[in-house]
């Protein structure tokens, strides 16, 4: 059992309560008798034996712990002694290393001192030997006749000859010209010859891809005055037969990257050489290509498109070079960097001069041509339209006289409902203008941009808003029939309002997206906004005038039709009749439904509310005054009520096509007034004080009640006494 206890005690985690519980369960099982009884004596013996076993186990574990502690103490003493021995050895090593380091420092100092003394003793001898050789070569140039030294005639010794001739050339500059003129010329001639040979060898090595030889020659050439010629030869050879495709701009960056690797490996000043390399591309290759592309100025559209493409492509190449670190965004000539603005200007070579005038001419021509094509397709010849109050008065007088005399003096023409407005045309014109403003923003300088944008805006306003929209409004105003016309007037001006609003919205979006970005933070911005506002007000005034004239024509015809077609018997019929609206009313309502359909189809927002309310108010007045001219019996009153209901349905509508609340209130009141023509005399007082009629003036109620045919026979005035 001790082993069993030991196994249970070593469990992780160990729970004493759980241990006791397990012992209880085991003892219960062992002391189990019949009928679920158990033997307590046996349980006691089991627990007593378990306690003794645990004590024995405890003693055994304590002895084991003592042995382990003693072993650990002995090992600790051994490791301490060993560590002390290692520390002593380390201290000895440090002492020995310090001694050796000191000795090495003394030896190194002595060696350096000896080396300096040897170098000091050798340098004068080397300089003397070099001076002797140099004087020997100088003597060869002082002797008459050609120089026949092997050094200057052996191609394999070109590097040594270059070193000597460069020094001789420097010495020759200090010699008196009188005595040594011939020698100086011979040295200069040999200097130029060796310089040419070096450049030829450099180009040959470049063609062979020998970067080591190129670097050697480039280092030698740095001391020659023709070093720039060596750089030019490298650039010319590198760019030979390159940039010849249709799109040479795409090949610029790969060419620069490829040669920058070579330049960095060969030349001692790679930044300056790379700057010259890039400059040669822009000022020679790209400039020539751009000039060829822009040679033909006869076609404005093609020329400006090519100009924009060339400029943006050049800018794109510069941006790519900036990202690659080959061109600086800001200039730093001391480091050999280039500004991208200078590169673009050099490549364009003044191609943008005179752009503003050319763009203006092009936009005028394009917009004028678009208008001309549109009116030609409509088979319409534009005419001069005179405006002003006198012309309007003259037109109205001619129309009235013509109507009364049944002749067409005013020559009012509706063009078959043609509005002479085209959103498709406007979109095309705005697209052309958008391209002009985009080019303007890209190609103009910061000083030219605001003034050019203002000129282009004037062109757009003149052709799009004045010559197209304003002209269409003038035609639309003249095509509106006069109010005295006997036939139902055909009103097409609502379609004109709808199209004008859409076009104005399109122009407003164009103004925000294309015009304002060219004028931000400039004094011209307020000027352009003011121009736009003035034109918008001019168009709005004509729209208001046209809507006013259209409403007047509708109201005038309704009034005239009711005066001529409404019969007195409509409201005083004899015998029993069907209570339906009168024929005159049905004709008017049919026409009004057509008009309101056009209003709701073409107007929206405040315009819709204002026009529908104004039409309802005016027609309410006409209908109210029209009913004042008749006498009504009971059946006629029902007809009048049906008429008013039809008028209200046509003018006020329901649901989404509902007129503003004031219009409903007017016709509700008119309907209530018509009820006064029908109610029994004893109920008049009560009806007059109802919610709808209580707010009306009493004279209106009295006047309406007097229209009843039984007003005098029934002495209805007695029923109205006391009406406050």
Automatic annotation (TrEMBL):
Pfam families: Sec10_HB (PF07393), Sec10_N (PF20667). InterPro entries: Sec10-like (IPR009976), Sec10_HB (IPR048627), Sec10_N (IPR048625). Residues 160-719 form the Exocyst complex component Sec10-like alpha-helical bundle domain. It comes from the Eukaryota. Residues 42-154 form the Exocyst complex component Sec10 N-terminal domain. Residues 51-78 form a coiled coil. Keywords: Coiled coil, Exocytosis, Transport. Belongs to the SEC10 family. This is Exocyst complex component 5.
